[in-house]
Design brief:
141 residues; alpha+beta; Dna Ligase, domain 1; 2 domains; three-stranded mixed β-sheet; two-stranded antiparallel ribbon; 5 helices; flat; binds zinc ion
Length: 141
């Protein structure tokens, strides 16, 4: 690859990462594509996918799949837990420290060395709960 080609690729990856880091919504590749296109109109969805994969491999981003059709991407490379709303499919970061004791417990139990763990909580988000309460109120009237 010539130098110009290399620089273009680096620039693309930078823009994709900054778009990913600009949101806390854990977007799909398609959302990232729509946003990056505002800055780089000629970029293709394939390029977005390729770069998201590279960023994931580099440890700059995480790919989250929750058994739904679309993978979601997380630009927050720090380890953290997630809450997934089963009503609106939104994924939220949980602001609490990683429970390291869990890893020690698994190590003691299994005789293994744990390097990291992931934890997801499922349920209804604040907004969906509020909507539900509102609907119930309307039904009661
Ligand atoms: Zn929700
Ligand atoms: Zn996250």
């Amino acid at each position: 690859m010539n130098k110009k080609g290399f620089l273009r690729k680096t620039k693309q990856r930078e823009v994709i990462l900054s778009v990913l880091r600009s949101t806390k919504s854990h977007p799909t590749a398609d959302w990232v594509y729509q946003e990056v296109r505002k800055e780089m109109p000629n970029i293709s969805l394939g390029t977005i996918y390729r770069n998201l994969k590279i960023l994931t491999e580099m440890g700059e981003a995480t790919e989250l799949s929750y058994g739904s059709t679309y993978s979601r991407f997380d630009g927050n490379a720090e380890e953290h837990y997630h809450f997934v709303c089963e009503s609106c499919d939104n994924v939220f970061d949980i602001d609490m420290p990683i429970i390291e004791e869990l890893e020690r417990e698994v190590e003691a139990k299994m005789g293994v060395k744990v390097s990291r763990h992931r934890l997801e909580f499922y349920g209804k988000c604040e907004e969906c709960l509020a909507k539900e309460t509102e609907q119930k109120k309307n039904l009661a009237n």
